[in-house]
Amino acid sequence: MSIKYKFHDSTAIYFVSFAVVGWIDVFTRTVYRDLLVESLTYCRREKGLNLHAWVIMSNHVHLIVSSREGYLLANIMRDLKKYSAVRILKEIKDCAIESRKEWMLYLFAKAGQQNSNNKNFQFWRQDNHPIELDPYSNMFEERINYLHNNPVEAGLVANASDYLYCSAIDYEGGKGLIGIDLLV
């Protein structure tokens, strides 16, 4: 992988995108989105994650993140992806009414077999595609707007703040599912 897409500065803010292998639309189900929300909440509380903006789409996630002092963002992202993958895969396996179970597990197993880093299944693509942001630049505001408008562009809602699995409501003075860490 190119050094272009790595977390170089542990004190920086990053726009991060990551996707489910094969762009499988796992997050069309509330239960799986909620498990990812739980993972993000845990990482904010226990792992040193500062979450500045976020959105969960049907098959990918966009975050604007940084880490608290003493924590490495690369480690936080690794743990977030690993833990959420384990929880979501378990839920898929255990869910008696998941109509896509066999198909999804087949694709996750196939992806896992193609990656020597996995034993059985691979849920997330390996890359995070982090892009360092200057919080005082136009690019920072553009990334927040891009992230928040994903559900609008996808036709899920008319207004970004109406999408429950997004931090847009926090930016409009409301209280979202996770909350955000404002820049000081």
UniProtKB/TrEMBL annotation:
Keywords: Membrane, Transmembrane, Transmembrane helix. SMART domains: Y1_Tnp (SM01321). InterPro entries: RAYT_transposase, Transposase_17, Transposase_17_sf. One of its GO terms (molecular function) is sequence-specific DNA binding. GO terms for biological process: DNA transposition. Pfam families: Y1_Tnp (PF01797). The chain crosses the membrane at residues 12-32. Residues 9-110 form the Transposase IS200-like domain. It comes from the Bacteria. This is Transposase. It comes from Pedobacter psychrodurus.
